[in-house]
């Protein structure tokens, strides 16, 4: 099992390569639908020399590879983060690692890096509809759904036949099954609604329907995609009480 039961062994965030498919639908996005009807420790440099070995100060552990601007976007109330690091600004291959914030210790990896896919053309700070890039940033994860039954998530879960992905992806692979399980990424959407809700607060031109969904073997339209077993692990792990977010972008962008 890839999701760790212990929180303390450190995991280096490696960027793994893979291939993936897209968020299908009009404008390259998930199809619209009705709104949901249901609901480490480390001594500071020089500390030992000045305070003595019994009085070393403790520094809270940060998520590796994130720069100060990215870290500042993560709320102090957030205790879960899915960190998706792309191989490059124009790459559709990335890796996702789960992190939890442990009181008094800081952030700890609780999974190995999972191979993932993102938008066909990589990443962008200024996402637009059908640009085939994934938006860079820190976004809430509040709502889930899919064509298949809820695997046991604590997020609101909307099971509907409308989670359908017909056709083929960029590499000719079938899209069938990619929306069996999804988690809506709160980019240009109304939190607290089904992932199928088509409300776009920033306007239709800024795109939307950006999800974490099941990988089907090729680049996405802008979503992040994980293998089916990893999607199930993610859904069971996510806890709305811990204010989960996804931190996503290429490695250079996330280091800012």
| Total helical elements | 4
What can be said about the biggest beta sheet? 6 strands, mixed
Please tally the β strands and state the result. Answer: 13
Mean pLDDT: 84
Radius of gyration, whole Å: 19 Å
Strand content: 15-25%
Sum up the overall morphology in one term. Answer: globular
Structural class: mainly beta
Element order: H for helix, E for strand: HHEEEEEEEEEEEEHEH
Contiguous uncertain segments of 5+ residues = 5-22, 24-29, 31-58
What does this structure look like?
The structure is a single chain. The model is unreliable at 5-22, 24-29 and 31-58 (pLDDT under 50). This protein has 256 residues and is mainly beta. The protein has helices at residues 47-51, 68-72, 228-237, 251-254, and strands at residues 80-86, 93-102, 106-109, 114-117, 123-124, 134-135, 137-140, 144-146, 157-159, 182-184, 211-214, 224-226, 245-250. The longest helix has 10 residues, at 228-237.
Q: Which helices and strands, and how do they pair?
A:
Layout: H1 47-51, H2 68-72, E1 80-86, E2 93-102, E3 106-109, E4 114-117, E5 123-124, E6 134-135, E7 137-140, E8 144-146, E9 157-159, E10 182-184, E11 211-214, E12 224-226, H3 228-237, E13 245-250, H4 251-254
Parallel strand pairs: 1-13, 5-6, 8-9, 11-12
Antiparallel strand pairs: 1-2, 2-3, 2-4, 7-13, 8-10, 10-11
Short description:
The protein has 256 residues and is mainly beta. Helices cover 9% and strands 21% of the residues. The protein contains 4 helices and 13 strands.
